[in-house]
Specification:
Helix content is about 30%, strand content about 25%. The protein is built from 13 helices and 23 strands. The strands form 5 sheets. Strands 3-4-7-10-11-12-13-14 form an 8-stranded parallel beta sheet. Strands 2-15-17-18-23-20-21 form a 7-stranded antiparallel beta sheet. Strands 16-1-19-22 form a 4-stranded mixed beta sheet, with no helix packed on it. The longest helix has 20 residues.
């Protein structure tokens, strides 16, 4: 047993009323592009994620892209609308138990004003050449969805206009050009059904939020929610925030961006005469760079849990980008572990980040206060500890993490000894189980490397990898110093997440 001086202690009152959690982390998740929704392997991964992580909506790029042929010219050069592939993609999504969080983009070439493109599937990112034609297309598409899926179903969807128009790579027009695209599109969608939910500006770095909300208010643009993105390692932050690098290295920059955006949207909505506006973060990850090792590492699980604990009350959704490494923005991955954005590899091996969402899904609906007693001074040099306490009925859940921030990456760090003291227990006996994600547990990349890092694992090797990567639960001892108090002690290696489930009986 660790000495009291070396332990970090948290105290949890199991009898506290707690706060009801909206579980904003489960509302949505991302996938690379709509064409990939037609793949059976991605559909299987999505269905699994619904069962085990509780996701409700999915957002992806490219529902309007050339691949899905929604607007093309036939051999007679006649403009033709064809919804069959669009329908197939969304039918598959609904069959998996997910609703679309529709990203209205990118530009069908037949309506485009230019040739600028992005991604391996060559998505056109230019404004419409003719807004009357664009509006006719959007109106026809949304009317088709309303007829196919029904008005009540469509009113449960979200409609987000475009993707990251504050980046020249994703939008060849100006900010004012985007505002026109937004208001034209929003009015067209509302003309089909005024109860459909529209939002923007879908910017990265939480950009344009204040001015966009105020512009919508001043110009009578329909606005039901605000949408934006954040990646904490975006170097563009250095241009506007002189303290960026220092805070990023400590590991808390994403939380700063979310807090600032929360205040900006609230202030702007009040100034513009809107009711309080929901804020949906329709993309986020620890890094926007494909190929970063953190995407495959156990530290990603610790980071996801820590971030969600910090910001879940300040967001209406926080959609991880992406569910899978089945991803077509670049040439298709050649190897099983490539540092891709996904929570699951192309072969269906769950990564530690996926397990983070499994652990989050097992939290009860009421958050309990977890008071930290000591050890905070060691976080800066040894790794950042966090304790998230929750309750469902009489059962308690403790989600403990030891996150290695960017400034400590590569350092040799100690295990952290943690003791959680519980009071207000109502049962005479309890069982405790522990589920770990750390370098030795539920670590698919480590199992793959031990196998020799095969670029294309055989079916037998893939099954062995999937088995090795799964979560395992084991019993843990609960110390009972009094009739209504107890304590539990665990060791947290660097870059780890541990869920303790404490149940009466």
């Amino acid at each position: 047993m660790a000495s009291p001086a070396s332990e970090t202690m948290f105290a949890v009152d199991a009898a506290a009323p707690g706060r009801r959690m909206a579980r904003s982390w489960e509302v949505a998740v991302g996938a690379g592009d709509a064409w990939s929704l037609l793949r059976a392997d991605l559909q299987q991964q999505l269905a699994r994620a619904v069962r085990e992580c509780g996701f409700q909506y999915l957002r992806c790029h490219g529902i309007l892209c050339e691949q899905l042929q929604s607007a093309i010219r036939n051999r007679q050069s006649e403009l033709v609308h064809n919804w069959r592939l669009v329908d197939a993609a969304y039918d598959a999504l609904l069959d998996c138990g997910l609703r679309p969080f529709v990203e209205l983009g990118f530009m069908p070439p037949v309506y485009a004003s230019g040739e600028q493109r992005i991604f391996y599937y060559r998505a056109n990112v230019t404004p419409p050449a003719d807004y009357a034609a664009w509006n006719s297309f959007i109106g026809a598409l949304v009317s088709h969805w309303r007829q196919r899926y029904g008005a009540e179903e469509l009113r449960r969807w979200y409609f987000e206009v475009w993707n990251e128009p504050n980046l020249p790579a994703f939008w060849s027009g100006t900010q004012e050009d985007y505002y026109r695209l937004y208001i034209e599109t929003a009015r067209t969608v509302k003309a089909v059904d005024p109860e459909l939910r529209l939002g923007g500006p879908a910017t990265t770095m939480a950009g344009w939020l204040r001015e966009f909300v105020r512009w919508c208010g001043a110009n009578g643009a329909p606005l039901d929610f605000v949408a934006t993105h954040v990646y904490p390692d975006d170097d563009q932050f250095e241009k506007t925030d002189p303290n960026y690098r220092e805070e990023f290295n400590r590991g808390g920059y994403l939380e700063k961006v979310v807090r600032r955006a929360y205040d900006e949207v609230a202030d702007a909505a009040r100034d513009a005469g809107f009711p309080p506006l929901p804020t949906h973060w329709t993309e986020w990850n620890s890094s926007w760079r494909w190929g970063r090792p953190i995407h495959d590492a156990t530290n990603q699980a610790a980071y996801i849990c820590r971030v969600m604990h910090a910001i879940h009350e300040q967001v209406d959704s926080f959609a991880y980008w992406t569910i899978s490494d089945i991803f077509n923005e670049f040439p298709f991955p050649r190897s099983e572990f490539v540092g891709g954005f996904g929570l699951i590899t192309i072969g269906g091996v769950p990564k530690p980040g996926y397990h983070a969402y499994q652990l989050l899904h097992r939290l009860g609906d009421h958050e309990l206060p977890a008071e930290r007693r000591n050890g905070a001074e060691r976080d800066a040099s040894q790794g950042s500890l966090d304790c998230w306490a929750a309750r469902e009925g009489e059962s308690l859940q403790l989600l403990l993490t030891n996150y290695t921030p960017p400034g400590l990456e590569g350092a040799t760090l100690p295990d952290r000894q943690v003791r959680v003291e519980l009071r207000g227990l109502r049962s005479a006996s309890w069982t405790v189980t522990e589920t770990r994600v750390d370098p030795e547990h539920a670590n698919g990349r480590a199992a793959w490397e031990a196998m020799g890092a095969p670029e294309a694992p055989t079916p037998d090797e893939l099954q062995r990898l999937r088995d090795a990567a799964e979560l395992r639960t084991q019993p843990l001892r609960l110390h009972r110093p009094g009739h209504d108090t107890a304590a539990v002690e665990v060791a947290l290696p660097p870059s780890s997440a541990v869920l303790l489930e404490i149940q009466p009986g």
